Amino acid sequence: MVGCKLKNLIEIESLNREDIECIIDLALQFEQQLKGGVDNVKSKCKGKNVANMFFENSTRTRFSFEMACHNLGVRIFNFDTEKSSITKGENLSDTLENLWAIGINGVVLRHTKVGIIEDTLNHLKANISFINAGDGNRAHPTQALLDYYTMVKHFGSVEGKNIVIIGDITHSRVAKSNIELLTKFGANVTCCAPSYFQDFGIAKVKWSDNLDGCLKDADVAMCLRIQNERITEKIPLDDYIKNYQVNENNLNPKTLLMHPGPANRDIEVSSKLLDSEAGLTVLEQAKNGVFVRMAVLDLILGGQK
What we know:
The protein has helices spanning 17-34, 60-72, 92-101, 116-121, 141-155, 173-184, 211-215, 237-244, 271-274, 280-302; strands at 49-54, 75-79, 106-111, 129-135, 162-166, 188-192, 206-208, 220-223, 256-258. It is of the alpha/beta class. It has a 5-stranded parallel beta sheet. Strands 2-1-3-4 form a 4-stranded parallel beta sheet. β1 (49-54), α2 (60-72) and β2 form a beta-alpha-beta unit. α1 (17-34) crosses α10 and α5 (141-155) crosses α6. The radius of gyration is 19 Å and the shape is globular.
């Protein structure tokens, strides 16, 4: 069912079920092709040029986009924000116009500002495609797609599955994108958090502050990092660890443990659990991110004129 066309990927809300299934199908094809080596990959976007523009720090997302580009035969250019003309006062739109002029076809953009891609597109004449690698606390679509891909590989379908997202929901773009995607496919999503991390403006989910109750029937436990860089108030960390840490004592062995990374060991999840067999899914998520991002890049750049 690989036939959908994407111009940009900004947020999960812009994708319907068929689009998402198309991405997942293509990611699975790429995973199978890579078993025969990178020369076995059938890429529609070979020879295109992509700029990685990360205005926030990143390890997994940046490196998996780089790996995805290399696997597809796409040339990747890492934009050094500290040494760019933006530090001299050039605005982002002018920078992108110039990158397009010298041959950049697509941009993977991470930024602290919510809506940065839409704002930029309103002022841009260049025919550049965008992939949102995280904007503020709003959206991280490829993370949600790789998380869904991981769940599909384990369960076949998430319909009717009980997905518990635990921790700093308020400041998490990962949580918001996952909620939007998983509820499209009939998952039962519960957000478990203390009152200071709850946001009742987020629809389509149940809310709870009882971790043990939520984990009892959970098919997936998705732990979130406390977003210290976005928090101004002091968090009662000892209380958080006592009541909301997922560990070997409260996680059902049948529950799939997930974490988007980076994990703060012994805060949201115990080191013992991360280092156990249950923690292998976290590494599986990172691995699956390459296949999913290959699919997104191929669909966007491969259809670009």
